[in-house]
Each structure stands twice: as C-alpha cells, then as structure tokens.
Amino acid sequence: MKQFNEKLASRITSAVGTMWCAYIFAGIALISLPAALSTGDPIIIVAWVAQTFLQLVLLSIIMVGQDVQSKGLQQKIDETHEASLAEFELAKAARESHAQEIAAIKNLLMNLKDLEKDVDEISSDVQEISEDTTEITEELH
Question: pLDDT (tens digit, 9 = 90+) per residue, 38-54?
Fold first, then answer.
C-alpha cells in the first residue's frame, strides 16, 4: 500500500507541477470571477483573489520554479562532483610521480653509499701505499 501511495503522490506532484496545470487552474479560477465581481463586495473579491486564484495558480507555478531550481542545483552538484574526481585523479598521478621520485632518490642514496665504501677502500689503499713508500724512502736513506 505504501508503494502505491508513493507512486500516486509522485504522479500527482508531477502533473500539478507544470505550467499547463497552472493555466488550467487559472481558467478554472476565472470561471468564478464574474460571480465574485457581481457582488461588488470587496471582501468577496479579495477572498476570490487570495483563496481561489492565487492558491490555485501559484501552487503549480511554485512547483515549476522549485523544479527549475533543483535542476540548476543538481547541475552544480554534478559539475562539482566531476571537478572533485578530476582533482582526485590529479592527486593520484602526483602521488605516483612522487613515489617514483622517492624510489629514484633512494636508488641514488644507495649508489652514494656504495661510492662512499669504494672511496674508503681507495683511501685505505692509498694510505697503505703511502706508508709503504715512506718505509722504502726511509730504508734508502
């Protein structure tokens, strides 16, 4: 029963929320206008304008306006969502790029450590050679 009521309410709302319905309501309201005017009573004329014409016609017009506004809002939401997704993809790409850069820097550091070991070994060898040449030089003198 709940689904039936929801579908019925949705269809009625869709039908009433159109400008064609506003025109029909205006036509219906105008049928009673001559009777209201013929009384000459300002209270009846004001009541006709407020209770008959405005309530009937503005109901549909307000619904149409809300529909237009909600479509505009939905478009902005969709555009914001698309922009957010694009920003997310850019951030992912930047993150991947940074990960590659970090890996390259780590590789360079490892190479530098290897070079440092090589320099230490060469320095040690040079030190030994220097000591050997010092000994040889002392023996010769």
Answer: 999 999 999 999 988 89
